[in-house]
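Action item from last week, closing it out:
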Amino acid sequence: MIRKRNFVYMILLIFVIQASILATPAKKEKKLRFDESGSSFQLRELTESEGSFEICDFEEFFDSDLALFDNNGKQEEEAQQQNISWKKKRLGRAVLELLPLLGTSQTNYWIKYTKWIEDWQFQLTWKDQKRRFFSFEAHKFDSNCFQTNWTHSVAGALYYNFARSNNLTWAESFLFNTLTSLYWEYFVEWREVVSVNDNILTSIGGFSIGEALYQTSKYFLDRPGTINTIIGTLFDPILSFNHWLDQKSRRLYPPAPFNHAHRFTVFAGYKGGSYSVLGEKYSNAHFGFDTEIINIPQYGKAASFDLGFKDVMSSRIHFDIAFGPEGMEEYRASTKIVVPGRAKQEIQDTGDGVRGFSLFWGAGSSFELYQRRSIFHFDSCTEFYFSDEFIDIPTPTAFTDKFSTIHIIGPVFDINFFTPKTEFRLSIEAYLDFSLINSQALTDYTQDTNLEGVKATLANYGYYYAFGYTAEARARFKYENIQLDAGLRYTYYNSVEGMDRFYETITDDFNLEDSRFDYNVGMGYMIPGTNTELHVNYEAVQRTGWIKDITSRQTDKRIFGQVRFHF
């Protein structure tokens, strides 16, 4: 009861903070300006307007200020016309680009429909289709395997980027993606339930992944050079393709009037720990990359401003993978975006560096995926057992740790303090979550109990659908070439009952709860005169699970040694 009450309190707290972020008024309208030389930054106060605040859109800056940054001597009218062409929304082209992918997938699904025979629950009759379209009777969680379900977010990212790369706003692209998902669920899969989890993963997960890929790709494609083009294409080939189509008649992007703050890192090294999928110590090779782009003008540089934003303020992508003697041991991936929000900065140039602070806060959304190597054949997508034709999985079960989480929405607060020799950054986040989470307590529960009559995904693949919340804080301190970092994170999951697609055959629809508590500390040393950092890190992940009167706990301790290259 205490855990459920905390869950409700956390949800209320998230939305109270979220409302305060979006509703806080400012006393004066302000807008960014550069001087005529384009070499220095000013914040020019425009009007006095109590209780109102100008919301900043990056594209609006291009409209009003593009001529000031024209280094090729073009006339203002020509530059403005170029920018109008750049901003033209191409919804028709987005639909044309979507149709081949959607049509191929739809045709393939209908040709191979018998592969999904376990999903058939409706006929092509008015009675059945009326239940699907005009009631909530058909809205259920599906019974597909873990991999089939989380990859709907990748499909959503493709749908999203067909619109986004054709100059639709992030909100319009989100709507485009959501409508495509609904079309698939209602019309293409007319035999099946309307999958609640697929719609959440495709729409919100696709938004988080798609926007992060778009922002990263756009950063590189905005810049000249073959290497930048290749990197931009790898992150978002759809944007790169549209870039290629458009550059025949015009430049896709006008010259940027300010530098984005960014951090790109690739790393390789060692990962060891005291727990593995076989319960033994392990030693793995570890590789990955991390990107972050902050789309706030002059962020971290000598400037002062106080602005609201309706565009994407920041985006991040992370991926890492570990290999051992048996091959791939685990991987994790995440994306995060912050939109809309506000930013404030007061930084002065002291002659030997900068001094002051930069902060931004806004509405965040994120996608996260983690999976360990499966060690038994039933922990995969190769088999499916009907709930009404139950086949015993060997007990006790041995499903390995995995989860896919949509951090739907929540407040994000980020502040940076600068002195000529030091930098301190603190980030605090909290989210309302929807997750596919592996049950930590399931192995202990099945010591003397089988899985007959339980949730379909739990019986077949060891995971269940849950709502929950995440709270996280991260800190980083830099002194010259030395960096210290630390992080704390707590995530809570609570299962959903009564929405299994085979609910009529579920005889033991018990509640499940899980939590993850992560903490880490690290230290790095930047080799003078290079972009190379030597970094060590300690991380612990405590997993706790509850099923009925069973509580199961397990701690995974990890040590990392990495060589990081920053660019």
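Closing note: Residues 338 and 364 are 4 Å apart (CA to CA).
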